[in-house]
Design goal:
Blueprint: H1 3-44, H2 52-99, H3 101-107
Helix pairs in contact: 1-2
Length: 108
């Protein structure tokens, strides 16, 4: 695989990680909103207990918040790695173009 093709692959993986990050953020925000609604119901309703349905929803939303936060961190790390790798490949490509400038001109 050529360096240019490798660069495109790395860029694609970087975009994939960015999309995963955006998705995790959306899931995270929705789950946090559900948790906030349940807490608000508990505070404003002056109830000592939530119904079993609300408890189940709150537990599920809390799990989703934790999972989304982990996914957010994983995809952010992956995206940063891909950006770094892409930069390295671009630098290598630039160096190769400079060192092979004469050969490139002759090939044209």
């Amino acid at each position: 695989m050529s360096r240019r093709n490798l660069s495109f692959v790395v860029q694609g993986e970087s975009l994939k990680a960015a999309r995963q990050y955006q998705s995790a953020i959306g899931i995270y925000r929705a789950a946090k909103e559900t948790v906030a609604l349940a807490e608000d119901k508990l505070v404003k309703g002056r109830e000592c207990q939530l119904s079993s349905a609300w408890q189940e929803m709150l537990n599920l939303a809390t799990e989703r918040v934790m999972e989304a936060e982990l996914e957010k961190h994983r995809s952010e790390d992956q995206h940063l790695k891909m950006i770094k790798r892409c930069g390295q490949l671009e630098n290598q490509l630039h160096l190769l173009k400079r060192s092979q400038k004469k050969s490139i001109a002759n090939a044209r």
